[in-house]
Write a structure and sequence with these properties.
The structure is a homodimer of 227-residue chains.
Chain A (H helix, E strand, L loop, with lengths): L5 H6 L18 H13 L6 H8 L3 H8 L2 H25 L5 H18 L1 H5 L9 H27 L8 H13 L1 H8 L4 H15 L19
Helix pairs in contact in A: 2-3, 2-5, 5-6, 5-8, 6-8, 6-11, 8-9
């Protein structure tokens, strides 16, 4: 269920660009790469503009010239990260054709692959609350794009009777939250590959939106329960 | 489904102390209360021992005397927060009697009530990565207690055929992660009461562990799907 294995490849019409599964190193300027490391190590408030400039080996005005402020650096990183995620989510979604289950599987796989292989960028999420209200809004608009992709799939799946959620928007947010938490434990534990985590979370996410696969041995006919 | 309403009260044997629903202001020393505010406003690294001492109105050595270091202050807050959560989770669990669905409902309700009414303490979770490895371990042991409560319920529900998860431990972690994300949006949005959020997340969590309530109009007979 974690992607187009032999079965899925024959069962679904594959459209779109399958490159959403490839995770090359992020294309960031040296300034942003070093800032990302410092924010990860010491937090946004624990990192000064001087720290970043020293680490990159540039003068402080050069940093101000490029990003305006330390907050500008954080915003540039968050915008890069979220745009990359959004592009991958769209490609993964298109790759699932017209099938809500395959679309959901692909998009969750894309999100989890990014959470596990780009942990530093993914962990920046925790620094969003330090953005000014205007910049937070700017970031939220981008991030909402990923939420929109998933919610649209959940709504479609509900309409077709394959998913069953009482509140599609809240279930979508909950499913994204469980994926976003992955960077907090993935590297510390180090016992699962990104692919295995992706497969597990595809299964959990599908269950969370009320999908029951008849092929999945973990799901058996429901016991009727009197309350 | 968000707690023992009239139906649940007659259907399940209520044991334990129902006080887990009451959320009094946290009982923290003035030093910890002010440190919590500062960590929330400026992050752990953005807060100095001097900042905390100034805000409380004590000399710096007094702070070192009580907590050893700034990290000691963070650890004291995390330990208070996690112990409080664990006590509530145990009480909520006991209050659900022998019924995995009611136990799960109660524990998720207890967790969400805390996430929504004690947002500052709940948000501290993001600062855990700044703890030293030994202190992080000490904290994780406490936190694992809450995970153990939920996982034990999921395993029991699976054994009785009312829940259906492929990996109980991972589903437990995912369900807790969606609850832990609530403080990140709850106050910013301000459109739902803690009780409504709790009811929604009880429903989402039960669905996520593969429970299908026959009384829930959002869940219909599953469509058999050929893949």
């Amino acid at each position: 269920m974690s992607g187009p294995g032999p079965d899925a490849a024959t069962a679904t019409k594959v459209v779109g660009n399958p490159s959403w599964r490839r995770m090359e190193p992020p294309e960031l300027s040296p300034m942003l790469t070093h800032a990302l490391d410092l924010f990860y190590e010491n937090g946004f408030h624990g990192t000064s503009v001087r720290d970043i400039a020293n680490r990159v080996g540039v003068a402080i005005p050069s940093l101000y010239y490029h990003h305006g402020s330390k907050e500008g650096v954080l915003l540039a990183l968050l915008e890069y990260s979220t745009s990359d995620m959004l592009a991958r989510a769209h490609a993964a979604d298109a790759d699932g054709g017209d099938d809500p289950v395959q679309r959901m599987s692909n998009v969750i796989e894309a999100i989890v692959l990014r959470m596990t292989t780009r942990a530093r960028l993914a962990a920046l999420e925790g620094e969003v609350r330090y953005l000014s209200p205007e910049n937070r809004l700017r970031y939220r608009v981008l991030r909402k794009g990923v939420e929109d992709v998933v919610r649209e799939i959940v709504v479609d799946g509900n309409a077709r009777g394959v998913f069953h959620t009482a509140d599609s928007a809240e279930s979508t947010r909950a499913v994204l939250a469980m994926c976003q938490a992955i960077p907090r434990w993935f590297h510390a534990e180090g016992r699962m590959s990104p692919e295995i985590v992706a497969a597990k979370y595809v299964d959990i996410a599908l269950t969370a939106v009320g999908y029951v696969s008849t092929a999945n041995p973990s799901t058996r006919p429901r016991t009727k329960r009197a309350r």
